[in-house]
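User: Predict structure, ligand magnesium ion.
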Amino acid sequence: MTASTTAVQLKNVCKEFGETIAVDGIDIDLRHGEFFSLLGPSGCGKTTTLRMISGFETPTDGSIRIEGEDVVHRPPNKRNTNLVFQGLSLFPHMTVAENVGYGLEKEGVTADERERLIEKYLDIVDLSGYDERKPQDLSGGQQQRVAIARALVNEPDILLLDEPLSSLDRKLRQQMQVELQEIHDRVESTFFYVTHDQDVAMSMSDRLAVMNDGQIEQIGSPKQIYREPATAFVANFIGDTNLLNGTVENTTHPPRLELDAETNVTIDLGESPVKGDVIASIRPEEVDIAEPGAGVIDGTIVNRFFHGERTNLVVEPHDDSLPEFDIAVQGRTNLPDSEDVSVELNPDAMSVYGQ
Ligand SMILES: Nc1ncnc2c1ncn2[C@@H]1O[C@H](COP(=O)(O)OP(=O)(O)O)[C@@H](O)[C@H]1O
Ligand SMILES: [Mg+2]
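Assistant: Predicted complex:
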């Protein structure tokens, strides 16, 4: 069999539980060795997707290939995947080494080879020398790393991780994010990471898929997804954004966006976007502040949030049919002195979606 270019390929994968459509026709290709995240709100179908890849659920429709081979009817232990999830379930009465080597022993791997692999993977997760400890004598982060070593020790093609850091506090979670990336760099496995936490997905992944209500809204690098969100859902879910309702008329050149407002606010758009009722999205750092009268929407600064190098301003338009704007200003020198300002919306920084 020739080497497959994709590690995992999902095609039109669906899963229904009675009336509930948990996964609604998704396509995902995982590349060899990449760190890929599946990101979406709770209940959107992430765990179900992962359980279908690992073999604990059977799709209602569609195909799943691992290394080019159809695995839909193959049991979990015959797929070269391993799963790490939030409840780590380390065996409390066993040592770290016994926990890590447990699966190998069941597979009949010789004692010498077991020892070699246990040492190798304890080293990879930075726990050399902890072999004889019991789980209760380890910190939460160390226990997590034992669970990861245990999942890596039989060298799976794919490591599936289902929100493994969500029970850790924020500081430990951030530390573990860095460690997970380092672990990923040291092994050849493909990582498929499921999370509802956009910071985790955006900071760790080579690529990610944003999922909503059983469907994939967009797949891309973190930068692509942040800069060019494909849908209003993605724009709103990833990072902070300002969403504006409006209409794009067919009749003008260039096409003109008219915001839903009591006053007349129009913005000339560069390219020909969608027509009719639209949602326009613009990131806080893309909105500019001008002197009153110089931008498109006059208003008042009602809040300033200082974040070191960046300050977020909240501007309330004088026209109260328009929403407040969240505006991020870099540096101190660019901050306006007066509370009376005008908001400038650069059409090139705006994404426009049909409704
Ligand atoms: N075994 C099951 N039986 C019935 N409904 C389920 C089952 N597993 C998941 N679901 C439903 O499928 C949807 C997706 O669930 P899940 O994949 O766990 O989402 P996520 O991991 O994104 O939070 C939810 O509506 C959930 O209630
Ligand atoms: Mg889940």
